[in-house]
Write a structure and sequence with these properties.
497 residues, mainly alpha, 22 helices, 68% helix, globular
């Protein structure tokens, strides 16, 4: 890569100020809107039951193509794209309800064609059920991430969506935080399984188990480091530092999370630790010279060269623990800590209410943190400070609530089965194959997306590509990722990294 072109590409993603939070909300709302239309087609027409080329193409266009469009050609009109997705879903829902006049029966279509329900009772059901809405949330988040890491190198991707230099909010800033939050959410499942069997948590074995997850990520981090340096690839140094990259941040999360799990639950809840750690970090930023050091210090030694990656880890760890706290609350079938005012609700509405409460809680804290009448702090992904942690947490809880509300409306009988086979079949019926595939092998697909992004950038002058060429490249790129992910998913191949 010519030095002048490399500098041009680095300038293309540097010194950006981002965009507004509400625009990010409108753009990302395309993901639940697409799932809403997918759910209407599935619950009202069984469109994706026979999963052939037509079903895959429709699934891909809805759950990947819509996100690609929202971040590129529809970036200035996300409301129009949301309307194009939501309106047909509503019309289909109303038309089908009016024509059959049995809305409750319609949501159980898949059960009527399945094995008969038995009467073994709730004991036959797993304590940690599948949650299709979480699969859709995590899958959509992964799609947005994979789209953005390549699209950002083309001019069709608005600069306000790219990562902010220091202060402000952007779509990609939210993307990296959401990746960590979703990882924390998923990490709650093994924790709950260990608690269910009364398994004691000891530091030594926990750290050894965490190392099994960290070592592959560390290796990927070093592979990326040497690839970027060896190929003279364009890089944004102020993002993480000279040598640090996102894989190193991900690699550090499991051992620190393992330490947290050894603390007494009655004294130190995960949510308490998440907020406390980030609050202390913010206090240190504001009362010492740490903020100035991270933002302006000369890069004259190994620590200062990688200061952004090292110190921002505290904020990312807070986001990870926030995700885990939410997961611990919503993943169990029966939560003994149910709030009194929702105890009389159905299970699906209890989960939805919990997510609304979580989102409201983090939103209130965010407002207090950034309001000029209180603390007047600014969001910074570079620092991963307190406002950034609260923004990411509030956003992801709201997204989860949207996906949960769609599932509750379109598949109301999802968790009413008394047999695990019936529930599993219902959950499969209510889950997009494409989003399920991105969720099942998320880290492997993310790695593949990084490799393909590097290949495209080394073989194409992305800044010189016109609009049509750009969209063709991005369409084939996302189609390749979706095809590979879905093939692995259908063949039940799970790549653990």
């Amino acid at each position: 890569m010519a030095q002048s072109y490399k500098s041009l590409k680095e300038d293309f993603v540097s010194n950006l100020s981002g965009g507004g939070i509400w625009e990010i909300n409108y753009v990302t709302a395309v993901a639940p809107a697409a799932v809403l239309l997918w759910s209407a087609l599935q619950s009202r027409r069984n469109f994706f039951v026979n999963y052939g080329p037509t079903a895959f193409t429709t699934d891909f266009l809805l759950n990947v193509g819509a996100i690609l469009a929202a971040t590129t050609i529809y970036s200035s009109a996300p409301t129009a794209l949301n309307t194009l997705l939501i309106l047909p879903a509503i019309l289909l829902h109303i038309a089908t309800t009016w024509s059959r006049r049995r809305s409750k029966k319609l949501s159980h279509t898949v059960v009527a064609n399945g094995p008969p329900e038995n009467k073994r009772g709730q004991d036959s059901l797993e304590s940690l059920p599948e949650r299709p809405f979480i699969t859709h949330y995590r899958g959509s988040m992964m799609v947005v991430t994979c789209v953005a890491i390549l699209a950002v190198d083309f001019r069709v991707f608005p600069r306000r969506f790219a990562k902010v230099e220091t202060w402000g909010t952007s779509l990609m800033d939210m993307g990296v935080g959401s990746f960590v939050f979703a990882a924390g959410l998923a990490s709650a499942r093994p924790v709950l399984k260990a608690r269910a069997v009364g398994k004691a948590t000891f530091l030594g074995p926990s750290l050894i188990a965490a190392a099994r997850h960290s070592v592959p990520l560390l290796l990927l981090g070093f592979v990326r480091l040497y690839s970027v340096k060896g190929l003279d690839y364009a890089e944004h140094v102020s993002e993480y530092g000279v040598h640090w990259n996102f894989f190193f941040t991900l690699a550090l999360l499991p051992p620190f999370a393992a330490i947290v799990q050894t603390l007494p639950q009655s004294l130190f809840s995960v949510h308490f630790i998440a907020l406390s750690a980030t609050l202390v970090y913010q206090a240190v930023l504001d009362t010492t010279s740490l903020k100035a050091y991270v933002l302006t210090a000369p890069r004259d030694n190994l620590l200062s060269q990688n200061r952004e990656g090292l110190f921002s880890f505290v904020g990312y760890f807070g986001i990870f623990l926030a995700g885990q706290a939410v997961g611990l609350d919503i993943l169990p079938r029966k939560n003994p800590a149910t709030m009194a005012f929702i105890s009389g609700l159905s299970p699906k509405h209890q989960i939805l209410t919990r997510l609304v409460v979580w989102s409201a809680w983090f939103s209130v804290l965010l407002f207090l943190a950034i309001s000029y009448r209180t603390f007047g702090l600014q969001v910074s992904r570079r620092l991963a400070n307190l406002p950034y942690m609260l923004w990411v947490s509030a956003f992801n809880c709201a997204q989860l609530a949207l996906f949960c509300a769609i599932e509750a409306q379109m598949f109301p009988g999802l968790y009413s089965a008394t047999d695990q086979r019936i529930e599993t079949r219902r959950c499969k019926h209510a889950t997009s194959q494409v989003l399920g595939a991105f969720n099942a092998n998320g880290l492997a697909i993310f790695l593949l997306a990084n490799l393909l992004t590097g290949l495209v950038n080394l073989s194409t002058h992305t800044l010189q590509a016109n609009r049509a060429t750009t969209m063709v490249i991005l369409l084939f790129y996302t189609l390749a990722l979706a095809s590979i992910a879905t093939t692995l998913h259908v063949k039940k191949i799970k790549i653990k990294l």
